Amino acid sequence: MNLFETTAQAAEAAGPGPDAGLINLIMLGGFVIIFYFLLIRPQSKRRKEHEALVSGLGKGDEVVTAGGIVGQITKVEDEFVKVQIAEGLEMRVQKSSVGATLPKGTIKSLD
Fold first, then answer.
1. pLDDT at 71 over 60
2. Which CATH code fits 58-111?
């Protein structure tokens, strides 16, 4: 026995098990499913709802724009709508900037 020399014998390194590739694929698939249900699906649902809202805009609808302006639609054009925000004051906004429609009579109740 030599006191100045130490010899270490390592155990044989265990290689990856036969199911390691399958487990990795299952984990990857699980992440894809989680991302789909938590991120992609709700966002596409909101986009479809907004497209339906924009395509259904008509004269006389009371709306709120993305900037928070409340008004009543007086004219619908291809890409824009004219919104009356005060008596004798109209502005043209993009259809896509309309955030929501309001129930009839909301503007009068705000005054």
1. yes
2. 2.30.30
